[in-house]
Amino acid sequence: MRKALILALCILTALLLASSEPLVLAEENPGVATYDVNGNLCDRFNVGDDVNITAYSNPIYGTYTIEVRDPGTHLRLTRTVNGGGRYTEIVSDITDELGWWEVKAGSDTTKYASAYYEVIPEVGTLMAIVASFGALAGFGTTKRLRLKLQ
Predict the structure, then answer these.
(1) Are 105 and 66 in contact (CB under 8 A)?
(2) Domain span at residue 94?
(3) How many domains does the chain have?
(4) Which of 5, 10, 21, 66 is most buried, judging by how many CB atoms fall within 10 Å of its CB?
(5) Quick check: 97 and 71 in contact, CB under 8 A?
(6) How far apart are CA 76 and CA 102, in angstroms?
(7) 11-45: pLDDT as tens digits
(8) Is the pTM of this model over 0.85?
(9) CATH number reported for the structural domain that contains residue 97 in this entry
């Protein structure tokens, strides 16, 4: 009897969770995300990459703004979307500094949504730096061994 009661309670809880409506609908609040140029959700870009910014705010809230700030918190891009709705733009000059960038969408009359993306050095550049440090480390070791043998 006790096992049946626990099983019934678990099933009832699962049904309630599955049928409950979300408390906050994404279409009613501002939202923003970053994508690569192929349309894949992305939060890490190489220096010089283009960033596809997609934002949304319900049209009943009217005009909203999109701001992009660099790692030093300097304002680098501002767009105003009249009448609300979906906004998409591919921007080419917002990956020139390494670090975390912020994209913010919303207005003073609504809430704000933020997305963050990181700009990293290209793998080729990073590998060249690692290889040069490796060569220097090997040179130092060889020099010490030669001095030790003398």
Answers:
(1) yes
(2) 25-123
(3) 1
(4) 66
(5) yes
(6) 10
(7) 656 544 444 433 333 556 789 999 999 999 999 99
(8) no
(9) 2.60.40.1930
